[in-house]
Design a protein that fits this description.
This protein has one helix and 18 strands. With 232 residues, it is mainly β. The radius of gyration is 19 Å and the shape is globular.
């Protein structure tokens, strides 16, 4: 086991915080966010798994990382209080990359997942009447299609990660359960009692309990299951 990164520290020994997110593997590189300074300043670090070379591709106020095709994508607030904007670099050349049309101009996204074509993200807005937060799951079925809101929650919101499969989008609800969306039609179903989801090829493994699956059981959501979601 070789350590390739660690949190950075101030002169007084205190560690600079960074957004809590596991590293990503994109092609032949690993990438993650490191806290690097006061005022929540952080770095987007890229480590070449073949050569061992470490590169810092961005220093700023970075919110989260994702991968879109061969590009490393992150959300960044360019000034205090401003909504985040998306930035990207090519994982091979580390030069600025062009975002697909579906993601250009996207601001304020909570986090995002993509399979290189379809993308899904969480958008948070404020109810003008109550002032409370509204959490929306937005899905773009192709790299050229605009995102459309498919599920809206007024309580709790969604928890990362969002899983994007060849036929579906699976998002975990903060207060328990998952939402499964047919990425082409936008139809969705809600499954209570599921507390974990992971990709396994084209399928999604679900762990939890429901009427059909007793507590602790592991079930499989296949592409055919996702395509047969009842309209909602």
């Amino acid at each position: 086991v070789t350590q390739i990164g660690a949190s950075q520290s101030a002169a007084n020994g205190e560690h600079y915080p960074a957004p809590w997110q596991a590293p990503l593997i994109v092609g032949n590189v690993a990438t993650w966010i490191e806290g690097s300074g006061p005022d929540q300043s952080s770095e987007v670090v890229v480590h070449d798994l073949g050569t061992g070379k470490r590169s810092v591709v961005r220093t700023g106020h970075v919110g989260w990382l994702s991968a879109v095709g061969r590009s490393i994508v992150w959300a960044e607030s360019l000034k205090r209080g401003a909504k985040t904007e998306l930035r990207a670099v090519d994982s091979t050349t580390l030069k600025p990359a062009t975002l697909p049309p579906s993601l250009r101009g996207l601001r304020g996204a909570g986090y995002l997942s993509s399979d290189g074509d379809a993308s899904a993200w969480v958008q948070t807005t404020t109810d003008p009447k109550s002032g409370s937060a509204i959490f929306s799951l937005v899905v773009s079925p192709t790299s050229t299609s605009p995102g459309r809101t498919v599920v809206t929650l007024h309580v709790g919101g969604f928890s990362p990660p969002i899983l994007v499969t060849p036929t579906s989008v699976v998002a975990q609800i903060s207060q328990g359960g998952i939402v499964v969306v047919d990425r082409r039609s936008g139809r969705y179903s809600t499954h209570k009692g599921v507390f974990g989801a992971a990709r396994a090829g084209p399928n999604v493994l679900l762990s939890g309990s429901s009427t059909k699956h007793p507590t602790g059981a592991l079930s499989v959501l296949s592409p055919a299951d996702a395509a047969n979601i009842e309209s909602k």
